[in-house]
Design a protein that fits this description.
heterodimer, A: alpha+beta, Phage tail protein beta-alpha-beta fold, 3-stranded mixed β-sheet, 35% strand, globular, B: 354 residues, elongated
């Protein structure tokens, strides 16, 4: 990752930690919960389908920052998220590069 | 005889009106029969117009006939049968005018032969008397159109439709691209969508038709739609499967595949919100989807990568974020194609991993 991209990424993270959004995502299969999160938050989401196979999400309801909401959605899944850019979230295995 | 002369518009309209009277309604009155007979013998052009209208309407009515794919001889035979059906009551009508009408039949039949000759030569349009309304979108463009019958038409990128709203039919031709149809309920006027070798008929429903080079995909969002495929004899009679909400049929050169059930509809209609929603879709198809909307073309060269399935939600006009995702995959290399696009490859070491 180049220097410029790192700065970009830090900026993105700052944004998503400050900005709060109102969410109402029910408990449901994780892949669908992530798509619902995308619809409500306006954030783009992408992940390899094999990662979420058979997993469920507890959902998230209330006012959250993007990061807090994603942590909640992914709770117990062994997955984590990273910001690809300010408007796009990637999901990957915890501890993956 | 001028081989390719256009029908006089007024004559075409009269013929269409006559067709409506005899086929679009339950009963035509004796007066209407008489007027029709008088009109028919007035000029060969009237007969020609009527035959052409009959042919066209017959084409629409009979699922197994599709102009221009059906041989002209078949169309003429069909049109002739129709014309005879109309002429017959004229003879059998027990009205006081019967004697007066009888002699008119012969000229009608004589002129019909002439009309049939013309028919072979003239390449008639579809609904000869009515100019279709055409709606188009350019590359990357989308458009919503509210039709006069209240139906909604959402056109996706690079699409063309022709619309004809008649008194007893609503006929749409999807020439290319993709459209989502929100059909206003009107049991008396079936809503027929023609594309390639299929006809979809709806009364009041919502469905998506996506025409690509090698296949057409039909997905029902709400209600019920009947699908008819193929030319005369290509399918057993009565093979018009009814499709329900969440059903999808893919039609390729070999014909329609078995319907898939339980399709995720959010993925189907997302494009109307300028979104791309993917549920376990191969990366190759995802790239193709982005390429439908953006000049920034993404080509994934690695077949292994192309078949990897992803899920997600994207703005259709944001291929850059998708490319950024690809760039994060270990072993993936992305180079510019020199025209603003991207070529995506996978390192050999990674490609051959177990």
């Amino acid at each position: 990752m180049s220097g410029a991209e790192i700065e970009y990424s830090v900026h993105a993270e700052a944004m998503t930690e400050v900005m709060t959004i109102e969410l109402r995502v029910a408990a449901q299969p994780l892949d669908q919960a992530l798509q619902e999160f995308s619809r409500q938050s306006g954030m783009q989401v992408i992940f390899f389908s094999s990662l979420t196979g058979g997993m469920r999400s507890p959902g998230v309801t209330g006012t959250y920052t993007v990061c807090a909401a994603l942590e909640q959605l992914l709770a117990g899944s062994g997955l984590s998220f990273h910001l690809i850019n300010p408007r796009t979230v990637g999901i990957r295995k915890e501890g993956a590069p | 005889m001028t081989r390719d002369r256009k029908l006089n518009r007024a004559v075409g309209e009269q013929a269409a009106e006559a067709w409506e009277t005899f086929h679009g309604t339950e009963e035509a009155s004796p007066v209407e029969h008489r007027d029709f007979g008088a009109w028919m013998v007035r000029s060969p052009e009237n007969i020609e117009a009527y035959v052409r209208v009959s042919r066209t309407m017959r084409t629409l009515k009979a699922a197994h006939i599709r102009w221009p794919d059906t041989p002209v001889e078949t169309l003429i035979r069909e049109a002739k049968e129709y014309t005879e059906q109309v002429v017959k009551p004229l003879r059998d009508a027990g009205s006081a005018d019967e004697q007066e009408q009888r002699p008119r039949i012969a000229p009608v039949r004589f002129a019909f032969a002439m009309a049939a000759m013309i028919l072979i030569a003239v390449a008639a349009g579809w609904f000869v008397w009515m100019t279709p309304q055409t709606f188009e979108t350019g590359f990357g463009e989308q458009r919503f159109v509210r039709l006069n019958d209240g139906s909604g038409l959402t056109l996706n990128t690079a699409s063309t439709v022709e619309v004809k709203l008649g008194k007893s039919h609503r006929v749409i031709r999807l020439i290319r691209g993709e459209a989502l149809f929100d059909v206003a309920h009107d049991a008396a006027r079936p809503f027929d969508v023609y594309t390639g070798q299929i006809v979809l008929r709806a009364v009041g429903t919502r469905f998506d038709v996506d025409v690509r080079d090698d296949r057409t995909t039909v997905t029902i969002v709400e209600g019920v739609v009947s699908l008819t495929h193929g030319l005369e004899g290509a399918l057993p009679q009565g093979n018009t499967p009814l499709l329900h909400a969440s059903d999808r049929v893919v039609i390729d050169a070999a014909g329609p595949a078995a319907p898939q059930h339980g399709v995720r509809l959010d993925e189907v209609v997302a494009w109307t919100q300028q979104q791309l929603v993917f549920n376990s879709r191969p990366l190759g198809e995802v790239a193709e989807e982005f390429n439908r909307y953006n000049r920034e073309i993404i080509v994934i060269e690695s077949s292994e990568l192309r078949s990897e399935e992803i899920s997600g939600v994207f703005k259709a006009n944001d291929p850059a974020s998708f490319v950024a995702f690809l760039a994060n995959i270990p072993g993936v290399r992305i180079r510019d194609d020199g025209r603003g696009g991207h070529v995506v490859t996978l390192d050999a070491a990674v490609e051959s991993r177990p």
